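Bug #77: duplicate submission created two jobs. Keeping one. Sequence:
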Amino acid sequence: MQGEVPALLREELAEVISGGVLLSFGLVVCSIAAIRWRSGVRLILWLGIWSTMYGAGLLARSPVLTAALPHTIQASLLYVRTGIAYLTVVVGLLAFLEVSLGRLRFFIKVLIFAGTAVAVAGVGWFASGGSENAFIPLNTLVAILGVCLLIGVVTFKNLSERFMVLLNRRVIVFGTLVFATEALGVNVAHSLGSGTPLLLDNLTFGVLLLSFAYVAVERDHVNERRLVAIDNELDLARQLQFSILPTTVPDIGKLRIGAAYRPMTAVAGDFYDFIPVDGKGVGFLVADVTGHGVPAALIASMIKVAVGSVVPWADQPREVLRELNRILLPQLRKQLVSAAYLWVDTKNRVALYSAAGHPPLLRWRKGNLERIESNGLLLGVMTDPQYPVCDLTIESGDRFLLYTDGVIEPENSSGDSFGDNRLEQVVHNNQGRPPSELPGQLLTEIEAWQPASLAQQDDITLLVIDVV
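Kept job's structure:
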């Protein structure tokens, strides 16, 4: 017995080493796919699973390794070996599916369905007391059809360009032909009554696997470069968007002004601007485009251009909103814009306010917080909407707040919104804080309200205007 085991181990050494290498390679690849998970790495994941299953199957067939295991594990190992024998083909087809296009995907899905059905039948038959190899011929037929399909597509350039996502066709053609040639040789040799080394099977499978891995890595590299390019473009877009926002607040003698702007993503759909007139009056505009990201940011840029056309009506909130609606309506398509406009005339000590589907204006006066609503339709709904205007007197000590709904919508871990009440409490608790500091304090309160693991859910804009 002492001499038989080493001899048997030497015979199986190549098989055990092949299984260990493929198993280790597969586990490493699966780990990489999990760490870098996104839709583009599914091919890497399937290749990892494919290699892991193939390697595990080789090790499970080793009598020396299985003999060293406890009897309870040996019994379950038979089921694992049977499942791997049937499902390896299915996983390989799933990897093939990730590099396919058009009608080819339909045929591969048919083979995946057939392979899964054969696997279920084969494992079920074995579990009920039948032979573990009863459905292997059908499983082999599915594998042969899959290989033939792969050979047929990759061999002809016009077909591979039409039905596969390949950056370097030569590599996968080489891997496929090596694998197919060896498989054909094995079948011919078996038909003539002779065998072939199992190591050769494992090596050619490794060549096929590495050709697919090359395609996956190359595609992932291209995707990485594309993402870097997109990030660079978004960074430029962010810089451009911030360039359309005011860099300073207007120098109006009797007003102190503070502003905060925090986009949810690189670019945002929020916008604010000031329209100062003759040093005595100034208009404050806050707008919020529905949606997020680049489409909303493009509309916000259009609003900046449109603001230049409303300067003649700066002291007429109704006309400002109507003119913005007229300019934006043909460009908005399916998007809408909420907006609020406050005109403050420090000479005559009056303010005019109107809004288009926007959160209310807040006024802090003598220890009380008032909610002032004067809303019309959102911009972009109809051709000639009407916007009611609210006339207000202003006094020394008044504080006005204009904001977008990103201020009040953040939720805590219990799902409760920051809300109007919380906003009013923050304003009340910081009534002595200057307008240049209040927006920053409010952002701090919002951050504290939200769970640290939860990303910002909307763009945030806030203007604070104090009458002094």
